[in-house]
Amino acid sequence: MEQKKRKRRSDRNHAIYKIVVGGEFYIGVTVVDGTVKTSLKRRLGKHWSRAKTDRARWGWKIYKALRRIEREEAQIELVEVVRGKVAAHKRERELIKLVGPTLNSDVR
Question: Where are the domains of the chain?
Fold first, then answer.
């Protein structure tokens, strides 16, 4: 008997976060998987790893900034939690336009 695939939830919580590097910052969004704190820590780890290894994203401002510092100098802060993927990405774009983060490579 074939198992049905479970439908992916679209109403999960998403964390909008800010990564601060020196006086500059980046705004992003990630799904909350477990606690917000562990999700943000995991996301910063992914950014850090990609900054060091992902040549396709080598020119991104956030990754250039991360490569210039020691790992413990980067700080991640929760901005807000939003329910639902579409709403979270919409809110992220609003915040990027509103506050003008210097490390976001493209304003969508």
Answer: 13-99
